[in-house]
Amino acid sequence: MEYEEDDFLMISGIQHFKFCRRQWALIHIEQQWAENVYTVVGELMHKKAHDPYLTEKRRDTIIARSLPVSSKSLGISGECDVVEFHKCEDGIKLHGHRGLYSIYPIEYKKGKPKVTDEDKLQLAAQALCLEEMFSAKVPEGAIFYGETRRREVVEITEKLREEVAQMFREMHKYYGRRYTPKVKYSKSCNACSLKEICLPKLGKSVSVKTYITQMLQEEE
């Protein structure tokens, strides 16, 4: 099955979906968004990585920034922060360049490596797009973290590939139905930029009086 471009979902949405399906639906289906310190810092990190007018060459490496990518089989599109094309003996041809090149995507993130896999899943989704676009294999990539100032190498395993495909299939089902999942409150809700829009504690079937009391206690 191939999706039409009008039905493409954002690659970056896999971050929201992994964190919270309701958050993803509020942003990508209901078009609601709110900034907090975490989203602002993340945006500044990407601005440093992105320069759509810049493609540079360093010896045997070509560096492309803000590279648009998509996949008809997954029904997704977006941009890679950085893609490095390394000269090699067994790779792909690039228009205007001699020799063959391997493909190496790099995603920029604030903070440090996470225990959960959302960053790896986003990178894997980009790798799958690149594989489809260039008819090539992308066995690994890297995530650069602003806090540690170093790259973390990520192998694009079959497990990651399968999870990416499954999550986007689920996203397309939600999007097609315009369905927003019910709230499931957890401690992670406190760091969510949509906390005041989602009102997660209301989903715990408490009275209005109890909810207002809880909110006043948090503000003290």
TrEMBL record:
One GO biological-process annotation of the entry reads:
defense response to virus
Which coenzyme or cofactor does it need? Mg(2+); Mn(2+); [4Fe-4S] cluster; iron-sulfur cluster
Q: Which domain of life is it from?
A: Bacteria
List, alphabetically, the InterPro entries matched: Cas4_exonuclease, CRISPR-assoc_prot_Cas4, Dna2/Cas4_DUF83, PDDEXK-like_dom_sf
Which controlled-vocabulary keywords does the entry list?
Antiviral defense, Exonuclease, Hydrolase, Iron, Iron-sulfur, Manganese, Metal-binding, Nuclease
Q: Which family does it belong to?
A: Belongs to the CRISPR-associated exonuclease Cas4 family.
Protein name stated in the entry: CRISPR-associated exonuclease Cas4
Please tell me the species this chain comes from.
Candidatus Acetatifactor stercoripullorum
The gene name reads: cas4
